[in-house]
Amino acid sequence: MYIAGVWATSGPTFPVTNPATGEEIGQVADGGQAEARAAIEAAHKAFPAWAGKTAFERSAILYKAHQIMLERRKDLARLMTIEQGKPLRMSTNEVGYAADFLLFYAEEAKRVYGDILPSGRSDQRFLVLRQPVGVVAAVTPWNYPISMLTRKMAPALAAGCTIVLKPAEATPLCAIETFKCFIDAGVPEGVINLVTAADPKPIGEEFCTNPLVRKITFTGSTAVGKMLVGKAAANMKRVSAELGGHAPFIVFKDADPVHAAKGAAAVKFLNTGQACISPNRMFVHESQVEPFLEEFTSRVTRLRAGNGLEDGIGVGPLINEAAIQKIDRQVKDAVEKGARVLAGGHRLMDNGLDRGSFYAPTLLADVRPDMLIYREETFGPVAPVITYTDDDDVIAMANDTHYGLAAYVYTNSIATGMRAFEGLNFGIIGINDINPTSASAPFGGTKDSGLGREGAREGISEYLETKTGGFAV
Ligand code: ADP
Predict the structure, then answer these.
(1) Ligand 1 within 6 A of 141 CB?
(2) CA 441, CA 365: separation in Å to the nearest integer?
């Protein structure tokens, strides 16, 4: 825990485990409501001086943090693999992505422009000023345990806000090392505060009720997000929420099915399917199903699951036992209702994998709307393929979900791609593109996938308040 410039060195702790081996890898301070309150007070005290720095001064610190994070890339990636499980190459990519936000917002800090507006009165001038909202309380998830921090902290700091962050209980070590990058870059005492905790509830309660907090930013499940947004609304705090997803992946009649299958295999199993933008329903036109499934099956069966520190591992463990149970339930339900298992379909127990939470990369064909997996977010290495017959119907089928985060489309027609882009009710659409994300592009969803956008110009505006000045002249 890091509050008011001081690392906690005593008090209760909780263990952190490696999901690939079940081994304990560290003990972390176990904070509660009192610590959250102290951290908020420290952030409040530090706010005027931080907001009063020039954008150029804040930018210089973010540039430095970017440089430090890249210098530490190898060590951060290794820690991430041990704590969260993703293969080392993917962890290395994530650290790069995390650092991108530092660089982007070091630049964007200097572009928080105001406006001068025309008035209807000749003796009046309007000025619009954008100022930092104040103390930001952030709650982050375990699936991207470094980049989800920088995606919030970099724009908040660039805007002039101060921060209290509570990382997920499964990945506090990554949060601690991320904080060290900021601290070593020269972020002053009290400007960033870290509260680690085994039980998130009292911290969340303090974040939502303490009047000093002006903004809550959350990434995690829809259930927790709705609860926090509801509580924050009662106290009229600004909120951003990046929540669950149930991404469709459409292979149109005019797509190249082999190219689409390569994309599907690459994106579905990233982070063991534990991503809010992971494809969860693959709609494949009936004329494309055979070649698509042939290529997809051969790629899925070649994927090796195991400890992400070993060479050649394509899929790491799931975060915990509960994740295995959820996936197993969805797969069993689908199979009982007639889905065909083309790969995987079971937990992995051989070669020492029983010590961690491993599930075989799984491909299900003939998935239908009456199956749980058609409606529920999966968050695991299972690709459900649905055969459809009419291109005119598939957009409506894809939109038939209460989520609205990401969608993917494969087509060789510009017109089909454009119609899908316009017609899909999701915040992020990949058109023949499995990675439609970047620090410079807005990320976020509609409906139950959340509120607000992160990254890009939009990302910093979430931390800015608009002030109007009417000047009589
Ligand atoms: P998941 O089910 O994927 O772990 P959660 O929404 O439970 O997703 O977790 C995302 C983040 O939300 C984590 O940092 C977790 O500690 C936090 N969280 C969970 N419950 C609460 C709560 N009641 N108040 C505040 N934060 C919470």
Answers:
(1) yes
(2) 33
19-31 in b/e form (b: 16+ CB < 10 A) is: bbbeeeebebbbb
CB 201 within 8 A of CB 222: no
**Helical H segments across 185-288, by residue range:** 201-209, 222-234, 257-268
Residues 239, 451: Cα–Cα separation, whole Å: 7
The structure tokens 């890091």 sit at 2
- The dihedral through the CA atoms of 193, 195, 200, 203 has a sign that is negative
- Compute the distance between CA of residue 333 and CA of residue 376 in angstroms, rounded to an integer: 12
Instruction: Give the domain 2-244+447-472 fold.
Output: Aldehyde Dehydrogenase; Chain A, domain 1 (3.40.605)
**Cβ of 221 below 6 Å from ligand 1:** yes
pLDDT, one tens digit per residue, over 318-356 is 999 999 999 999 999 999 999 999 999 999 999 999 999
What residue segments make up the domains of the chain, in order of their start? Answer: 2-244+447-472, 247-400+406-431
What is the whole-number distance in angstroms between the Cα of residue 224 and the centre of ligand 1?
A: 6
pTM, rounded to two decimals:
0.97
Q: Is 16 helix (H, G, I), strand (E, B) or coil?
A: strand
Look over the chain and give the mean of its residue pLDDT values, rounded to a whole number: 97
Which uninterrupted H or E stretch holds 213?
Answer: strand 213-219
Highest CATH level, class, for 247-400+406-431:
alpha beta
